[in-house]
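Researcher: Please translate sequence to C-alpha cells.
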Amino acid sequence: MAIAITPFEALCGFRPLEEIADNLQLFPEFSNLVGKDIASTFINIVKETGTSSDESSVTQNKAALKTVFAALMNKEQDEVTKELNALVQRAKGQQGTLPELITRLDQQYPGGDIGVFSVLMLNYIKLAPGEAIFLGANEPHAYLSGGVLQFKLEI
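Model: Translation complete:
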C-alpha cells in the first residue's frame, strides 16, 4: 500500500484491454514498436473475447497482453528512439492527459526511454495527500512524481 504525502502521480496496473487496443490504433508508433502482427492479433483477441470472464477468454487475454508487453519492453534502442520521437511529435499537437503525459515524460527522461510508451498500457493515477493505492503482488507500477509512504501488508 502506498499513501500519498504530497500530490502524487503513478502508473499502476494494466489499463483495460479495450483501452490498450484503442491505443494501439490511435498511436501507430506504439503499434509499429510492438509489431503490426502482434498489435493486430491483440486487437482481434480483445474484440472477440470482450470482457468475458470464462476461463478460456481470460487465458487468451493474459497471453495476448503478455505478448504485447514483452514485445514492447524487448525492442532495440534505435527502434524505441525512432518511434518515440514520432510519438512525441504526434502528442505535441494533441490535447488530453495521454498526449500531455507523453510529452512531459519524454522531457523528464530524455534519450528514448521505453518507459514513456508504458503510459499507453498502464493506468495513470493521481492522488492527493492522504489518498492511497494498493499494489498487488507482481503488479507493474512506476512512480512519476510526488512522495508516498509505503507499507507491506501481511495477511
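Researcher: Any highlights?
Model: Helices lie at 17-26, 28-34, 36-49, 55-73, 77-92, 97-108.
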